[in-house]
Design goal:
single chain; 402 residues; alpha/beta; Aspartate Aminotransferase, domain 1; Aspartate Aminotransferase, domain 2; 2 domains; 11 helices; 14 strands; globular
Amino acid sequence: MDNRINQIRKKISALRFEMLNVEAAMHDQVAHDLDCADTSTRLMAMRAEMVALVNERKALGDLTPIGPDAKGRPPKVFLTNSGTEADETAVLTARLFTGHTEVIALRHGYSGRSALAMTLTAQAPWRHWGEGVPGIKHAVNAYCYRCPFGLTYPSCEVKCAQDMDAMIQTTTNGKIAALIAEPIQGVGGFITPPKEFFPMVAETVRRYGGLFICDEVQTGFGRTGTHWNGIEHWGVKPEIMTFAKGIANGMPMGATVARADVAGAFTGLTISTFGGNPVSDAASHATLDEMERIDAPGRAARLGARFRAGLDALMAKYPVIGDVRGMGLMQGIELVKDRKTKEPAPDVAVRLFEATRERGLLIGKGGLLNNVIRLSPPLIVEESEIDEALATLDQALAAATQ
C-alpha cells in the first residue's frame, strides 16, 4: 500500500499545505521580519505590512455577498486567530449595532470552544459547563432526514423555518440581536437545509430587529462549489460573516466581515494580539491567490458532482447508508442500522474509520449521534484521487458491514 494518504477530510486546511507558493510567501515574510534590524528599516517594513493587510481585508470583503451599506461603503473586516474569536466578534458587533442582547443559534450547530461559543453550540458533547452565557436561544434546524416535526420535505412547507416566529415570541422578549448559523453544519453532520430555509428564517429574524450572522468557517472559500460562500446557494445576504480554517491554509487566522454601518457600531477599544499577524497574512494572501487561480468554486462544483455521484452509487449498494447530503466538496453520509427506522449505526462508523485508515484513507466523523461520515477532500484534489477514494470507501464499507 502506498504510504501517501488521500486526505478526504482536512479540518485545518482547504488546500494541501505543500503548495510551494504558500510556503514561500510565509518564508519570505519571516525572513523579511528578521532582517529589519534598525528602526528606519522596521518602520518601512511596518508600512508595507499595513498596505498588505489593507489589501487582504479588501479582498476578503470583496469575496462576500454582504455588499456596501446605504452610504456605499464596502464591508469592514476584523482579523483574529480562529473561528471562535471570529464568532465572538460577530455576536458582540450584532449586539452593539441592534442594542439587543438575545441571540438565536440552530440546534446541532457548533461555534467553538469559548464560553459564548460553547453556549451557541447545540450539541451536549461539546458543551462543557451548565447553563452557559445568558441570552442564547436555540431554534430547530432543517434536519430533513430526521425532521424534528416528523414531516417530509417539501410537503412539510418548511415547518422548521416557520417555527422561528413562534420560538421568538415564546422564548425571547421579541427583540433579537442576531441569528448565527452555518449554511451546512460541519460538526453537526453536514446537515444541509432546503432552498427555502435561510430566506425564511433570515426574514423572520430581521422582522424582530435582528441581523443574520453567517458562519462560513467550514463552508467558505469555494468549498460548497459554484460560489465563494456557502450561503450564496440560498440567495441570502448576511449582515455579518465569519471565516477561519481555509482562509490561510492552516495558519492561525479568523475573520469577521460586516456591513460597514454594522461594523461602525463597534466603537470601543478591542484587540486580537496575533490577529492579522504578518506571517498568517502572507499565507492568507497566497492561499486566496491560489484559490482564484484554480477557480476553487468551479473546481469544487465539478469534482463535487463526480464525488456525489459515486457516493450515491455506494448508497444504492450498501443499505447501511441512510442518507447522502452536502454540496460541492463537502459531502456526508449518515449510517443507519435500518433505513426504515433510521436507527443510528455509530458502531459501523467506528469500524469504517478503522477500515479506511488501514487502506490509506482518512475520513471525518460528525453528528450528534456519531453516525455521520464527513468527507471534505482538499480543494486541489484530482479526479483520479476522487475515484481512488470512492474505491477505497467501497472496500472499507464492505469490510465494516460484513
